[in-house]
Write a structure and sequence with these properties.
This protein has 173 residues and is an alpha+beta fold. The chain is built from 5 helices and 6 strands.
């Protein structure tokens, strides 16, 4: 599979593109649908696309942006190559495709320079060996029930209804 092919339900992948265009053109790509147009696909979520000049990152740099800001592990990043990138870039997260498959056919002024994966959270946990963690480990307790029927509430309600009906008849007659 090519780096320009997006698999169905792809998650956690970041594609980094350089934009060889004037700043006005690069800024225009922030408009809804414009980035999809230069990438040759439709229906991208603009919230999942970042377009900015590398100079905006100041001391953090593109390396720090991907490492600290996007959660890309350091072993995937080439600091020298990323520090050499100048001008405008586009960061395209796989969430922009909203689970749909796609094949990118970018404009010649848009060049892919890196494909990175975000570090996934390890949700697995070890086994818990304490007695309290075992199912049905609590001692069963007997529920104490009063043997006489609990009909006091319904009896009070019946008396109130009879009083209201009796009061209505008394007023009518």
């Amino acid at each position: 599979m090519s780096d320009l092919t997006i698999a169905p339900h792809e998650r956690g992948v970041i594609r980094l593109f350089t934009l060889d265009m004037r700043p006005e053109e690069a800024k225009f790509l922030r408009e809804p649908g414009a980035a999809g147009q230069v990438l040759g696909v439709e229906g991208l979520d603009p919230k999942q696309i970042d377009i900015f000049p590398v100079s905006d990152l100041e001391d953090l740099g593109l390396y720090g942006y991907l490492d600290e800001g996007c959660g890309v592990s350091e072993d995937q990043l080439d600091r020298t190559a990323l520090n050499a990138v100048e001008g405008w870039v586009m960061v395209l997260r796989s969430a922009a495709f909203e689970g749909q498959p796609a094949t990118l056919s970018p404009d010649p002024r848009v060049r892919l320079i890196g494909l990175y994966t975000e570090e996934a959270t390890n949700w697995s946990g070890g086994t818990i060996d304490t007695d309290s963690a075992k199912p049905f480990s609590a001692t069963p307790t007997e529920i104490e029930r009063d043997e006489r029927p609990q009909r006091i509430g319904s009896a009070v309600l019946a008396v109130i209804i009879l009083l209201v009906i009796g009061g209505a008849f008394w007023l009518i007659l």
